[in-house]
Amino acid sequence: MLFHALAGKFDGVIGGPPCQSFSQAVIGHEPSHGNLIPEFERIVREAQPTFWLAENVPAAPIPQGALWNEILDAWEYGSKQTRKRRFSSNLPLVLQPIPAEVRFPDPFPTVLASEHKYSTNSKDRRRAGRRIGRKLNLSEVNVLMGLPADFSTPALTQPYAYAVRGNGVPLEMGTALARAINQHLDTIR
Asked: What is the pLDDT of residue 26?
């Protein structure tokens, strides 16, 4: 059963279609689903929102109707990890990175959705835990995602708790994007 959006009921649509088809982190593994960006585009067409924002990995295709498309690094917006993601929108957004001198001085590599699978034999140097030579615990992953160390998701098993965080957008980056959307909408109201 498909989700259908009612036209005019949503001010904005924000989504991150699954990235496995385009992600460097899953090269050599069969993706569990194909390109779902067309589904995101369908929902946007149905909803007819004032704005939409799509997030994905840098290699993902740009959604139709994008007026703005950038590959941003969460570290440039205050995150303690480097995390490059493609963002696209129907709004011409303007984001201001924080000054280099106030950024976290030695950022971690990207927290991956498979961070819980870290082993000392891992050859994947992109994994954040590789930096400290062990699997990161959830408190450490929380902090790298901009969450309180004690942030909890008790309904999730441990592998899913890691996956939810590793598939997310760091809070600092999300805040910068929300600020840019609000600033643009304030100019057209």
From this structure: 47
9: tokens are 């009921």
Q: What is the pLDDT of residue 121?
A: 60
Two tokens, residue 66: 């994008």
C-alpha–C-alpha distance, residues 159 and 23, integer Å: 19
| Token pair belonging to 182 | 């609000």
What DSSP element (H or E) covers 54?
strand 51-56
Catalytic-role residue among 19, 47, 74, 171: 19
Rounded-to-integer distance, Cα 99 and Cα 102, Å = 6
Domain locations along the chain: 12-188
164: closest CA among 109, 116, 104?
A: 116
The pair phi, psi for residue 129, each rounded to 5°, is -65, -25
Question: pTM value?
Answer: 0.85
pLDDT of 148: 98
* Spans of the chain, pLDDT less than 50: 26-30
CA atoms within 13 A on the CB side of 65: 18
Lookup: tokens for 131: 């930096």
Whether 164 is a known active-site residue: answer no
How confident is the model at residue 114, as a pLDDT? 80
Residue keyed to tokens 């959705």: 113
The answer to whether 81 touches 170, Cβ cutoff 8 Å, is: yes
